[in-house]
Structures are given as C-alpha cells and as structure tokens.
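Posting this for the archive.
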Amino acid sequence: MNDAPWQGDACSLVDAFRSGERSPTEELRATLAAVEASALNCVPFLDAERAVAAARAADTSLPFGGVPFAIKELSPVEGWPDTEASLVFRDRRAAHTATALARAEQLGGLVPFGQTTASEFGGLNVSVTKLHGVTHNPWRQGATAGGSSGGSAAAVAGGLCTLASGGDGGGSIRIPAAFCGLPGMKGTAGRIPRGPRTSIHPLTVVTGVMARSIRDIARYYDVTCGYDPRDPYSLPRHDRWEADLGTLRGQLAGMRVAVVPDLGSALVRPEVADLVVEAAEALARDAGLRLVELDLTAPSMGFEWAMGNLASLRADLEGHWPECEADLTNEMAFALRMAEGNYSLDMAARAERARTVANETLAAAFDQVDFIISATNPDTAFPAEVGLNTRVGDRKVGLENNGALTIPYNIYGNPAISLPIGTVDELPVGMQVATTHHDDALLLELGAIVEAERPWPLVAPLAPC
C-alpha cells in the first residue's frame, strides 16, 4: 500500500487507477490517514464509512472515477452537517445535496469523504471561524489560507486530496487559490448551476473546484456544467472543456491584453505587482497576445452594496437573530447590526445605481481589450488571525484591501482565473486573468500555456505528505 495520498493531479490519479498502479480504496485510506495526521485544520468532518463503500464500488471509467473529493462546508450534502461554518447551526444536518455536487458524484465518479472549512456564511475572505478555529496555509503555518474556500485550498495544496469543491461570491475560489499556490477559476455566472433551493440575490455567486491543474478544472466543468431548472440563471451545457485544451491557441494570436496590476484601485504590494507584470508579459509573448494600454479604475460598490448583501444572511438567521449574536464572528455580527441600523430604500437605490456604473465601466474596458491581467491578491498570505488595519512590518494588510481585485468580476459576472506565477518571501503569488462573458475556454487555454511554460508546484513544498 502507498502510505501518502497522490501528489499529482486528479486526472493522473484516474490514469493510475485505470492502469492498476493504484486503487480507489488504497487512495482513500491514504487520504483519510493524512487528514487525521494533518496540522492544517482544514477537514473538520469525515464520513469514512460512506467514502469507503463508494471507493470499493468506484467505476474508474468515469471522468473522476474513484478520486477522493472534499466538499466545502457551505455546500449541502444530504445527511452531513449543514453548519454554514457557524456555531449558530452546529447541530443542523442537510436535507439535500447541491446540484453540482450530485453531478460530481454521479456523473463524475468522485468519492466524497468529508467537509473542508470555510469562513462563516462565506462572508469573509480569510480562514478563521468560532466553529473550527484557524485553518493554516500549507506554505506557512499560521498564515491565512484565504477564504471563503480556504479549507478546500489548504487540503489540495497541502497534499491531502487532489480535488475539493469551492464557491466564489467575491473571490472565494481565486483568493485562496492564489494564497495557496493553486490555479482557481471563476466561470461566467451560471456556468455551473447552483441549487436546489438556493438564494438568488445578489447574483454574484458561482461554484467550482479547487484543483492542482488546468485539465482538472476543465474536466470538472465537463462533469458539472449545464442548465438546471432550479437555477433559472444557469447556462446551456458545453462538454468540450478538457477536449478543447490546446486547440484554441491559434485563436489567441493578436488578441489584446492590458496589464493593470491594481485595477486602478487596490493597494498592491510592489513586489507582487512587479511579479505580475513580468508574468503577464511572458504570457503575452507565449500566447501571441498584443499588449495595449488601458485606463481603468475598477469601481467600488461601497458601503451600500455590502449592507444590501446581508439581506440573504438575515433571512438565513430568521428565528435566531439577534439572540445568536454571541455565536457569530465579530465581523459578521457587527455587519448585521450595521445593516439593521442603516439600510434603507434610498441606500438600496444607490447600490443599484452603483452596480449599473460598475457594469458599464467593465463593459467599456472589454470593448477595448480581450483580457485584463492583474494581481489576484494585493499581497501574499498574511497572518491568519488579523483584524482591520493590521500591519506586517511596514505594510498594511487584512480584510479591507483583500478582495478589491476579485469582487469586480463577481459583480459583472464574467469569467476570471487565478494562476500561480511564483513567490514573494516564499509565499505564492497569483496572477488574475479576466475576459468577456462566456469565453471561459480562452482563460483555460491561457492557464494551460502558463502551466506548460512555467509549471507551478502541485503541492506546497512544506506539505507533510
């Protein structure tokens, strides 16, 4: 038996199953043992009995047949804890399974084995909750893994499993992917269906996967994408994501790209910005892209937008709030109190006007270019337990600046991918590439070019496995 989990990508693990080099049961047992031994604190719930049965019955002819799969705790799996990463719901169990996860298991052959940590209600882009404590970055113990899909990113980059589910409402796939040295894709809104019984507002959330390679992401899209009636905004099926990799390079030649590391608004660490410019220029050369100048200031949705987004959380807490306030993280409790005292019809109107301006600003930018490249995060992974206005040396880090580079693309709804491009102070840096709606395949093609020309480590160098 191989004692350590597979350290390649999920597609190569499937190949190993099919060749007889490894078995799904053997891989699952290695994964479960690694989770139990890990200090990352990223997998708080295991369902070993169900997983072992699924591994024994695995059909390795399926796209991901037999691959152990961790699931972000914000996504429901029937019978599993449905805590939303909050003490408020610590005893609740899910009555249904999310549509995309059901497809991943039934059509893809993935073997769910447990849940990964997330930020409370997905409301923050860090990896600390009252329910589970600190989830650590596999590149450096004590550093944030990002959020809200921080546990999934830590598990995959930390060598525990090859795939874990994610979701992105403001950068929650791309932020932890960049902090943990992984590729991370936010597809066009509706590419992978949400639901069933999902909250629709504010039309910024997409689902996806934390993975080690571009082909893993593409194959996951093949398995999970496509219209579902319980998500009226889901898009028609396209099933050539993996097959088309490597075939679209000719289309890229001569396409226009602008490199704007800070999107005109974020405070980006100079060393990060320099690395992004270097990597972006290299990608432009490799793909035959044409570099152009772009005057862009990505709009901020401001206080009004943040307050309006709390409406769905308030509905979720019906019957619990305000008595549950002490169970919430300080930031979530403070935000709810602020919203109750300040949100109004006038504020909602201002937020809608701001969203219209944001859409027009980004649409005008994509009239001039085909791709916009920026940093994914303004800095490398900062200490996991930081508050507002925290300083590390001479740098200001923390929640208020993090997300400034990712949120605009959730508001606009177009696809964006984060790609690992190297390190600063031995911590990963991500480069974000965004393009027009429905051109997700072009981003995967660019990702494959970066991966081929400048490969990234599939697991963190210090990962215990």
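The longest strand covers residues 416-424. The chain has one domain: 10-453.
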